[in-house]
Design brief:
By secondary structure, this protein is an alpha+beta fold. It has 10 helices and 18 strands. Belongs to the FAD-dependent glycerol-3-phosphate dehydrogenase family.
């Protein structure tokens, strides 16, 4: 979410930019001629009043009978973040999700909040300023989430085992650079430990040729609960939030600009029109399907990538220490992390088709198991039968439509304003 999806780490950034653009679109475009329709984002000094959580029946009644400043399609981390940001800026906001909140990518991550060590490596090696900015932004979000939601997030030490002496200064410098980019918002500073300490902290680690390890800190979080907490906070501030509601058509006014969507209740099959001055497409891997509802001729931009994780018994890892394999057989990284008295291992990065319920393949599961064996003691038998469960999530990697080089894949967010004023 990176892993995945680490899209939660970018939720606040996406929310801020899209909510700001929503206010800009509503106020500054000439198709809204009535001054009474103009919306001004609050200055931040207004008192925010929280209401009791309304039942779903009231949320549906609101969707059917009211019009909105902003309609957000997609109830994952990004959509929920957009809803909270827009509502607290003074925009009347609605959020819909065709399945359940956080049921897609936002619950299928590596459960980490991190800037991406490998992206910092690419930024330095390739002198890529965009990669550097992405890492810096993610580390800023990491610090914010650790501070604002301590009940859902926690610091986690992660060990990088080293089996060649020349790699000791290489990884040490790399992790110190990671600390430096985080600045005073770093969780804890990285440090080097010798072979004996490494085996004490991670007894199942392979001993042969082990030189020591670098330990650095990142954040760990309950991704699904974080998304739900944000959505619930949005509706307590007044947003209309409903799950199992699907957008089946984008409505447009006489000028060809988006003015709402036709919605369908997936439980009852009932359909109705919901009017809104601005639509935000926050559907992640399903971005192109909503974009094509708006304009069937528009080129696709989503390059979907499957990230698979497996769950192993808790004895495979220490209770409070993770492991990072920085160089797998195909050049990717594998995390090996404690999670709720079990062990998570992953992730893969395989091109895939966008499906509603992606499933992990046997090939991906066996790949993760094989990579695990390379770092565990040979006395430890890693068996296929030890896999308690597995899941696959889809990374919504995209070709930036704002750049001429359509082959360049972005792992951070991209905000695009379509000709009809929809924000994908």
């Amino acid at each position: 979410m990176h892993s995945r999806f680490s899209k939660i780490a970018f939720g606040s950034a996406i929310a801020g930019s899209t909510a700001y653009l929503s206010s800009w679109l509503i106020n500054d475009f000439p198709f809204l001629e009535d001054e009474k329709l103009k919306v001004h984002a609050s200055s931040g000094n207004a008192k925010l009043v929280k209401r009791p959580l309304p039942p779903r029946s009231e949320q549906l009644k609101s969707l059917k009978n009211e019009s909105f400043d902003v309609l957000i399609i997609g109830g994952g981390a990004s959509g929920a973040g957009c809803a909270l940001d827009a509502q607290t800026r003074g925009l009347k906001t609605a959020l819909i999700e065709m399945d359940d909140f956080a049921s897609g990518t936002s619950s299928r991550s590596t459960k980490l909040i991190h800037g991406g060590v490998r992206y910092l490596q690419k930024a330095i090696m390739n002198l890529d300023i965009e990669q550097y900015r992405m890492v810096k932004e993610a580390l800023h979000e990491r610090a914010f989430m650790l501070e604002s939601a301590p009940h859902l997030t926690q610091p986690l030490p992660i060990m990088v085992p080293i089996y060649k002496w020349w790699q000791v200064p290489y990884f040490w410098i790399g992790m110190k650079m990671y600390d430096l980019v985080a600045g005073f918002k770093t969780v804890k500073h990285s440090f080097y430990i010798g072979k004996t300490s490494a085996l004490e902290n991670f007894p199942m680690l392979r001993k042969e040729r082990l030189c020591g390890a670098i330990v650095y800190y990142d954040g760990q979080q309950d991704d699904a609960r974080m998304c739900l907490a944000i959505a619930l906070t949005a509706t307590r501030h007044g947003a209309t939030v409903a799950n199992h509601i699907k957008a089946v058509e984008i409505l447009k006014d006489s000028n060809g600009c988006c003015c709402g969507a036709r919605l369908r209740d997936e439980f009852t099959g009932e359909e109705w029109n919901c009017l809104a001055k601005c639509i935000i497409n926050a559907t992640g891997p399903h971005t192109d399907s909503v974009r094509k509802m708006d304009n069937p001729k528009i080129p696709t931009i989503c390059a979907a990538s499957a990230g698979t994780h497996i769950v192993l018994p808790g004895y495979y890892s220490p209770e409070k220490m993770g492991l990072l394999d920085p160089a797998t057989s195909d050049g990717r990284v594998i995390f090996f992390l404690p999670w709720q008295k079990h062990t998570i291992a992953g992730t893969t990065d395989m091109p895939c088709e966008v499906t509603h319920h992606p499933k992990p393949t046997e090939e991906e599961i066996l790949f993760i198991l094989q990579e695990i064996k390379n770092y565990l003691n040979k006395d430890v038998e890693v068996r296929r039968g030890d896999v308690l469960s597995a899941w696959s999530g889809i990374r919504p990697l995209i070709s930036d439509p704002n750049k001429s080089d359509t082959q360049s894949i972005a792992r951070n967010h991209v905000v695009e304003v379509s000709d009809s004023r929809m924000l994908p």
